[in-house]
Structures are given as C-alpha cells and as structure tokens.
Design goal:
The chain is an alpha/beta fold. The protein has a single domain, classed as Glutaredoxin. The strands form three sheets. It has a five-stranded mixed β-sheet. Helix 1 packs parallel to helix 4. The longest helix has 19 residues.
Length: about 160
Amino acid sequence: MAPLAVGDKAPAFALKDQHGKLVRLSGFKGQRVVVYFYPKADTPGCTQQSCNLQDAFPQLKKLKAGVVGISPDPVEKQLKFADKYGLKFPLLADTDHAVAEAWGVWGEKSLYGRKFMGIVRSAFVVDEKGKLAGVFYKVSPKDTVPKSEAVLREM
C-alpha cells in the first residue's frame, strides 16, 4: 500500500472501541480528529504517546479535534490500557490489521535483528471533510502532540 499524503481522503474504518462500541470515521464528519496508530497497548512508547494525547486532550478540544487510537490489540486489552492510564478517548481494536494496512501503517519492522510485520507508529490529522491535513509516519511518541497541534492551528 502506498503511503497516504496530505489532501488524500482518509480511509474509512468501523472498529470496536475499548467498550465494545462500534466507532466509524464517518461518525466524525464535520469535525477534526487526530487518528494515531500504536504497535501495542501498555508498552513504554505507546503509553507515552497515548498519555501525551490524553494530557493534551483539553487543548485539542479547543482546536476542535477529537482523538482516536488504533492498535492490533483486542478490545479487552484496549480497555485495560485505557483504565490503567485514564484514557478518555476511543482506543480501537484492529485485530486483523486491515485498517492499518489501508492507512499504510502496517509494515516490516526489525527488533534485535529479527524482522516481523507490525504497526509503524503514525499519526494523522483528518479535517472536517474527511481529508488528511497532516500525515506523520514513523512519528516518535513525544512528537505526536506537537506535530498534530501545529497542523490543527494552521487549519
């Protein structure tokens, strides 16, 4: 899958959140939303990224944006993660990684010389019309919020 670019239509999704409720990207029509993909719930980088977004949530709301996190973890693990860190936004379970593939974030990774397929940490800002206003592949956990806020301020 070719990487997405600013101006592209954001690929649709319908996934269950940590409470088992179906969340669709189309449900955010008319709103801005930060969609971020993280490899695995309750790991150091994913925790930092998610908690930074939770801490920035009031500021993001002032910029008229919601937040949605997506990982291949099942609903139950997403719920434990959200409860442990007080995450108030939807964490979606993409267990078959079909949404990750559509967004171009499912790819080859390497850890200690071992190659495997997984989520490439990424973040996207989707505008009110469902178009990508910000695209950040291989984003660091600490850069997700500042990069997303910069795009939101320019909109």
